[in-house]
Amino acid sequence: MTIEKANKFVVIDVETTGNRPHYEDRMIEIGLTVIEDMQITETFSSFLHCEREIPTFVSQLTGIQNEDLVDAPAFSALAANILQHLDGACLVAHHVDFDLQFLDSELERAGYNHFQGPVLDTVEMARLFYPYLSSYRLQALAEHFSLTHENPHRAGSDAEVTARLLLLMIDKLYSLPPVTLKQLEPYTRYMRTGLHDCVYVAMKMVRQRHQTYVQNYDIEIERGLAIKKQTAKPSETSTDSISFSAEDFFGWNGKLARVSPSFEYREGQVEMANNVHTAFVGENHLLVEAATGTGKTLAYLYPSIKISRETKHPVVIATETIALQQQIKDRDVPLLEKALGIPVKAAVLKGRSHYLCLQKFQHFLERISSSYDEQLTAAQLLVWLTETETGDIEELNLPSGGYALWEELKSDPDSCTPENCSFFSRCFYQRAKTNARYSDVIITNHALLFTDHFEDTRIIPSYHSVVVDEAHHLEETAGRHLGASSSYQHFMRLFNRFGIQESSGLFSNIEVLIDVRKMAFSLEWLSERKAELQSLQYEWHQLFIALQTTIVKKQKKNDRKSHTYDPKNLGNLVYDTWKRVEMIGKDVNSSWRTFIEQAQEKPLTPAEETLVQKISSLCNDLEEIHRTLYSLITASDEHEVYWTESDAEGRPDRLRLYRRPVNIAERLENEFFPKAKSMVLTSATLTVKESFQYMIDQLGLQNFEPKCLHLVSPFYYKRQAELLIPEDFPEIRHGGEGPFIYAVAELVSLLMAAVKGRILVLFTSYQMLKETYQTIKPWMADLDFALFGQGMHGDNRSKLVKQFRNRERAVLLGTSTFWEGIDLPGDDVRALIIVRLPFAPPDDPVYKAKAEQIEANGGNPFMQLAIPRAVLRFKQGFGRLIRTKNDRGLVFVLDKRLIKARYGKMFLRSLPEVPTTYASTNELLDRASDFFSQEGDEDK
Questions:
Q1: Domain Helicase C-terminal: where (predicted)?
Q2: Which residues are annotated as a binding site for ATP?
């Protein structure tokens, strides 16, 4: 039976004692919702008696207790009724494999056959129809679509919400253009559940109703692709001038106050806006440290719009993170526009690889991939094209294999020309550049800003003024941009794009082209090209074995994962292998360039032209990675540091090579800062000891004499927070890491009782994080808390943060990226633990090279480099706690150097004025309990 023949859907959800039905786990609750004629006609739920104890974590998640099951019916008593509902129906569930395996297990135990009808998985459907959502968890989907979900993780409520979600998705399916439905059909044919039948039925009904996209959709058909209609082409930059008065705009009765329900007067915001405006008008550079809560984004946006309208040039706003780019575009610009009462043109501009190439995608659709991830990705893209205005991959939540496909489909300079691309007038990348040209502000990232400067790509339209937000990252980003990296895996990703192992890949398409065009290339020639590429792959592998032997094994005694090297001293084994890599690489490129030239002697079909462009792109990429590798192993420069990194096993195929300039100040001074008439650099952390001098020196700003502005936070830290340092904590230098790690784990577990909320723990060492996680984990079942650890289960940062926020009582252990860039306001974090002062590892290659340079010049690396870096990082970590004026929380620093070391005062002086206590752990835990009990008294 198929979905087409089924006249109803039965949505099922089960709660269980675990996830192994074929062993000891059993159902403890079942929920069922029936849909007929696209209406919910019946709902049902019941506890289920079973001979199993409910694990503590299941009870915490669901609220179901053992006593709830005492008088509950067994599944066998309900089986006949459930089967009656399922007769002739399509079974639907969220993660249907999970629910179905438990249902079949219970049916078998009750003496019935397994369910044989069609099934649908609403997770798979949601991924297809809403490819832009960040999470496909049922609760997240319910929140997104405003579906009432009274009892998450209870079978009846989950089943009903899943049913309502199904109805929404069926409506979405029937709203798709007929051409999209037709193109979806082959890509859903091999999906894991009945999606193909759903699409087939939709196509049939659309044909029966003679629906047309012209009447019903905001869609246009471009060369066989249904694409959202492009908004009117941007006109010249608006000539509407605006007056500038920071007090009138940000004041108590100002324009912003009249449109913002959450308005707060902030003196620092007014001061910053005035200073930014003065810097723009006077064509000067400005550094602004704006503490959390200042409102810095609007403080620089308002004068940016003013100067843009006056100069008829857009102002460039560069951020480090994509999250801030989107926040500015989606939240801050609309608010500014509303307050000003005039349209504000803001464009987000990213690197070319962020944008989909429509021509490449069109030609990809001519073949059906055998990979599930590629099939799902292609289907997602077809749906997404009917909705996206940007074509930007950041809008998408692709399956892991989908990102490999994106490498084939992203925009590239070879094909992106009016002559080569039939979609050029609809090109997402060209549209983004055009939008930027006619904008008041261009929102981009640090990396693209550096690319535009140092490589003279002229991607960003002409501008006079720049705002660099998150400017504390500028030095590191510039170093990455001016440096280089390579790895064996980097080459393998390119090698795999040649598709030597694929039966229907690049080589089979080339074989067809040779045959159709009667080209003077034989199958033997193609076979030689495969052998040539395989030889190149072999030599790359041999090269990295040689590098591993030469660099890493010689330094094995210190057991580090990073090892510096000098390209002049790599030895004959490396150089001889490199010569073979270089020679074969040139042969590969020469052979394929000859093929391309002959192929282009006669007019090609669009599909053939795309194939030839793909080969050209592969050749370009191969030349690029060989140039990079050359710079890493043969071109020694005393002003740069070279090093390798590998995995814990030290495998050659996991070895990575890096090159970075030791000091980028001179390059920035000569090539970066002079290109803008005015540049504003802002962040919450730019000063050390209340001075900007460290940042000025690192960035090469001395000769520009920038004005500096330090704005304190408007938050009342004396009431909102306390800083607690335990005086009896073990010291690593005396007792080693073992006792220290145990003490950290013990403190975290004891603190849970006082906090009764979320705790964020920041580490400087991943190994220490891992060992602390393993120590705490066995205690968690008795503590009624959830434990999350960075890198423990492969979840990325955003997913970990979401999981953390979704649990009322949770501990999150993080390192590296968790010290900044995560916004956890209100009760999202009630206690922050900084385990160690965040000094850079002394063997960090770039730090070590900088320190040696300072020492050679008679300086003190610890005071001039280690301390400033650690202080800035410490301020970033501290800033995770108090994010709004209503937040309250505790900061524990478990490093006694904050009090006992002479330099500890520099860290303390970097913080806002906050009550500080240095006492025993027990006293601090009592103080923590008092702090949160006072919170309860205040609420009363």
A1: 746-922
A2: 290-297
